[in-house]
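User: quick one, fold this
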Amino acid sequence: MSLKITDWAAEDRPREKLIQKGTASLSDAELLAILISSGTKNKSAVDLGRELLNMVNNNLNTLGKLALSDLRKLHGIGPARAVTIAAALELGRRRKLAEAEDVLQIRCSKDVADIFKPLLSDLLHEEFWILFLNRSNKVINRMKLSQGGVSGTVTDVRIVMKKAIEYLASGIIVCHNHPSGNLNPSESDTNITRKIKEAGNLMDIQLLDHLIISEKDYYSFADNGVL
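Assistant:
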């Protein structure tokens, strides 16, 4: 039987340890223990945290993708704890997104990936997004054009151009994700890229790049010389 956290030495309790030594001193399981708040009759909150991490092979990205129903499969994680954990992970995702929004001018494909990875890398379905830029390649705005299933989404070139004109954009960058993790462009990806580029040339709106995002990496049409 595990000791309750209240039975631990004060300096070893997650909350006290965080206060005394800072957040970086805590393990992932100890950070989860703070969210879980208390354990069960036979398990401490840290034990529950470890079991939760074991469910996802200690991968926090995978943990962030779990639905509330998945979190509740672990004995000791009820509705309130599941919601608390999900909310904390979402705050972490939004922090990454806020950091990406500090990039006002696009200089390379990584700048684009930094903007879209927090939005797209964890999704289990495909989404297609547009980034609108001025003549200095500074970001005017971004928008989600469409959302699909696991293997594809529909992209209407007319709407892409219509929105670019509305924002008075001089350039655009399009981006979508591959939930499968396969970064190789499909024939459909290549065709839609060509169509958007050709339509942009007629409107004097340059397609600067098309990125495909996966959980761990990205593919740039421009970097690979196929734009």
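User: anything notable?
Assistant: Residues 5-98 form one domain.
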